[in-house]
Amino acid sequence: MQVANQPDQGTDILRQSLTCRQSTPLTLEPVSTSDTIDILSRFEIVIVPGLDDSGPHHWQSRWEHFLGQQGVTIHRVIQTNWEQPSYPAWRRGLWHALAVCRRPTILVAHSLGAVLAARWASECPMEPVSGAFLVAPADVEQYSGPDAGRVSDFGPLPADRLPFPSILVASRNDEWLTMQRARAMARQWGSTMLDVGQLGHIGNRSDVGLWPAGLSALADLARSLSGISA
Q: Could you tell me the keywords of this UniProt record (predicted)?
């Protein structure tokens, strides 16, 4: 599929009131949208949801639909139990999704899914994974909220550098992850830290729509993995 010949369709979708309501709206110009799809088309994208899965209005689900429509190869991790997760079972779910990938792959992970991706990467080789976009990793070591018991099986968090480049995205008012802890994780994992302001947990209730700013950051990661300047 030659996406460069169809810039208007992607641009129209991005402009349909899907900008983040809690930050400065971002509009992508046609050439930017075409370039974003072009660079992401060079990879397979694996969506890694977190606790309770990502609903239809979650930015991960929106990306899955939008990028798939534009010809980007998308896979989504399917878990047998989203409500009462165990690390061994979720690790198998991630492995099954990666097993079908045949080209360089980028993990797009949220919350507990980001912890899953980081921990498994620290334990075993993850070919064909080339990089990871880790959004609001759940701090399973220090989070003390009502769901702490549901995620305790995912500790300890990795203490070493991940075996591939990554971006760690953090929000200043995330109940699952303080900015101080986010910076510490980014240092340990060798991740580029991205502060997105006040977007809560950047999940089902964050109301970011298609989250164009996040999609742009993902494209930046893909460019860096391809050795292409933005």
A: Hydrolase
Confidence of residue 124 (pLDDT cuts 50, 70, 90): confident
Residue 96 has what pLDDT?
A: 96
Rounded to the nearest 5 degrees, what angle is found at the Cα of 16, between the Cα atoms of 15 and 19?
Answer: 65
pLDDT at res. 174:
98
The DSSP bridge pattern shows strands 73-76 and 105-110 to be unpaired
Asked if 216 and 196 count as a contact pair (C-beta separation under 8 A), the reply is no
Find the CATH number of the domain harbouring 153: 3.40.50.1820
* Confidence (pTM): 0.86
State the pLDDT at residue 128: 86
31 belongs to a structural domain = no
| Maximal CA-CA distance, the chain | 50
Q: Are 218 and 40 in contact (CB under 8 A)?
A: yes
Q: Is 75 domain-assigned?
A: yes
Distance CA 112, CA 93 (A): 13
Give the structural domain span for 55.
Answer: 41-226
Could you tell me if residue 150 is inside a domain?
yes
Instruction: Fill in the amino acid letter for 14.
Output: L
Three-state DSSP state, 47: strand
- Residue 33 domain-assigned (yes or no): no
Domain count of the chain?
1
Measured between alpha carbons, how far is 128 from 105 in angstroms, rounded to an integer? 6
- Residue 216 backbone phi and psi in degrees, to 5: -65, -40
